[in-house]
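Project outcomes to date are best conveyed with an example. Our students and postdoctoral researchers have been running inverse folding experiments weekly, and each run begins with a structure described purely in tokens. The record below, which covers 363 residues, was selected by the lab manager from last quarter's runs and is presented without edits.
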């Protein structure tokens, strides 16, 4: 066993483990015993938690990922390299990294064509989604080619937001956000606010957001959103809200060029389609239950519905956007918890309390 592995064998490896629906426990997790030639040994620093984690906790599944045995949560990590395999050349001990959690095979048709995010193997090796153990543990290993060094001016806390930011970068690339466009982002959680920031960085002229949470919309407005719309779930009508948004854009507005849907809520998906002008695009980022949508309206108006699956070579640009100062993600981090208080962190995120945006768990 190499020295770096020997050095941690008597160390504490406290982990947040989801056993089944509603059963979330802090417990010691087995320490890494092997380090492959292409892997890094990592010591956790920060890990963001999101709606996906809460859904796994409260429902026992999200999309096609089902909790069948105890596994470690956490898919938005930053860490410090404390050991490297014999073939690793891109990183060294002491480097701080953002970690891309899903590991593709790099051999299948999708990988060979450059769309490794669609690799079926990666669904079994997407760390933090069952059955692959995630990063809410003190020590773990990860392939070095999916660890990205953080520049000196990017903190580990910011590094923990790179995974979500990379998803957003991929979404904006998929719908081809560009100069002069009007964009609506449905949902002003961390991903939604980052969608607005990235859309602006990509050249969008006006970006608007919707949400049920007024404090999140207030933050979006403070960060430069051109308009925000509070959704009242009790009185919400997707077609009427679409009219309201079009009117706010301009008297003769035909709708937004692009809508990016980040909630996964049926009524919000319908709004995104209705508010998008003919010939426009709707990016589907949020994952919810299967829903009924106005497909005939989208088809007759040639509104393209574009799926967004994880990340495809987007980490480097996400890090560059932070490093260059084009994006400031620090205001999104509203709460931090020690790993020992991680159950409290999950309770807070689930509560929907006003003022809660991004929650980090740290080691």
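After processing, the design step wrote out the following sequence:
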């Amino acid at each position: 066993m190499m020295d770096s592995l020997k050095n941690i064998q008597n160390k504490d490896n406290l982990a947040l483990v989801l056993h089944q629906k509603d059963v979330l426990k802090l417990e010691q997790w087995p320490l890494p015993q092997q380090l492959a030639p292409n892997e890094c040994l990592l010591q956790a620093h920060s890990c963001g938690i999101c709606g996906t984690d809460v859904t796994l906790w409260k429902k026992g599944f999200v999309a096609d990922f089902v909790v069948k045995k105890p596994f470690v949560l956490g898919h938005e990590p930053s860490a410090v390299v404390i050991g490297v395999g014999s073939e690793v050349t891109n990183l060294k001990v002491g480097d701080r990294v953002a970690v891309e959690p899903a590991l593709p095979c790099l051999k299948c048709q999708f990988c060979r064509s450059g769309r490794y995010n669609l690799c079926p193997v990666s669904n079994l090796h997407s760390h933090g989604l069952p059955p692959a153990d995630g990063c809410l543990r003190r020590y773990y290993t990860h392939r070095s080619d999916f660890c990205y060094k953080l520049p000196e001016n990017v903190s580990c806390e910011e590094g923990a937001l790179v995974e979500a930011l990379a998803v957003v970068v991929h979404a904006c690339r998929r719908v081809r956000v560009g100069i002069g466009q009007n964009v609506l982002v449905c949902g002003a959680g961390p991903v939604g606010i980052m969608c607005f920031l990235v859309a602006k960085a990509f050249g969008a002229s006006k970006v608007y957001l919707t949400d049920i949470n007024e404090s999140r919309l207030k933050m979006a407005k403070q960060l430069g959103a051109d308009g925000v719309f509070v959704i009242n779930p009790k009185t919400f009508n997707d077609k009427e809200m679409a009219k309201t948004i079009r009117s706010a854009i301009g008297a003769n507005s035909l709708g937004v060029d692009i809508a990016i849907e980040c909630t996964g809520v049926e009524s919000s998906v319908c709004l995104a389609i209705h508010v998008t002008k003919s010939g426009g695009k709707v990016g589907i980022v949020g994952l919810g239950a299967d829903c009924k949508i106005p497909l005939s309206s989208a088809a007759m108006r040639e509104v393209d519905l574009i799926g967004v699956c994880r990340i495809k070579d987007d980490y480097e640009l996400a890090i560059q956007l932070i490093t260059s100062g084009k994006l400031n993600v620090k205001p999104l981090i509203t709460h931090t918890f020690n790993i020992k208080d991680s159950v409290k962190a999950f309770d807070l995120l689930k509560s929907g309390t006003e003022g809660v945006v991004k929650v980090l768990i740290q080691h």
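The chain is about 30% helix and 25% strand. The mean pLDDT is 96. The training component of this project remains on track.
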